[in-house]
Amino acid sequence: MDMFLIRRPSQPEIVEFLDQSRELPLSYDPVGIARQSPPGFNADLASAVIGRGRQTFERAKRALSEWRHYEMGWAEVFPKGASIEAGTVVAVLVRHLGFWSLNGCRIVYGLGDRHPGSSFGFAYGTLTNHVELGEEIFEVMLEPETEDVIYRIKAVSKPRAALARIGYPFARHFQERFRRDSISALRRAIAEFEQ
Predict the structure, then answer these.
(1) Number of domains the chain contains
(2) DSSP class per residue in 22-49
(3) Considering the chain, what is the average pLDDT of its residues?
(4) What's the CA gap between 79 and 93, in Å, rounded?
(5) What's the pTM?
(6) What's 93's domain CATH number?
(7) Alpha carbons within 13 A on the beta-carbon side of 152
(8) 30, exposed or middle or buried, with CB in 10 Å at 0-12, 13-18, 19+?
């Protein structure tokens, strides 16, 4: 299946894409590059205070582990409710300017601890059927002094598919929009858990 599509893929097509993705390697090396700023990659960081206190932090951890940071209307993760354990393969479906892209990713490591710690998250890396090449970290942190809950997205990437290279300014725009909308989505999920 092509990465770029003129219509939204059907559920069976997404399942087929996921099945094929499970056998694919990462499109980059080494795992952990998002913790650095390797030459030749764009390094992007976005962080925002999304609330305060231990309860908000626990809700943020839950929201992140349920992929609620992807609930933005134009990007989705399949399968719904995918595990964030290392090795899990997901398909990221994105609606662009009149077309769709389907991108394979694998969870490559976790961050922090689900239980008593002050940091929690995970990173995924792109597979060889992703339009980009790189790694992205999603992390929530509880600042001990201020009790601020911070959501941080750190990514290193570069275009891999020809269309992504040609449309590079648009790709960068969508990456920036993703970070902004993901922060809003996580805030909404936390607010829903409080009700």
Answers:
(1) 1
(2) TTPPBSSSSTTGGGS--TTSEEEEEEEE
(3) 91
(4) 11
(5) 0.93
(6) 3.30.530.20
(7) 19
(8) exposed
Q: How far is CA 80 from CA 71, 100, 112, 153, in A?
A: 11, 18, 23, 21
Pick from 188, 2, 25, 6: which is nearest to 95 by CA? Answer: 6
Question: For residue 55, what are the CA distances in angstroms to 52, 61, 67, 191?
Answer: 8, 10, 19, 11
For 27-78, write each residue's pLDDT tens digit: 999 999 999 889 999 999 999 999 999 999 999 999 999 999 999 999 999 9
Strand partners, 139: 121, 152
pLDDT tens profile 145-157: 999 999 999 999 9
How far, CA to CA in Å, does 11 sit from each of 36, 78, 79, 94, 103?
Answer: 36, 10, 10, 14, 15
Residue-range definition of the domain harbouring residue 11: 4-194
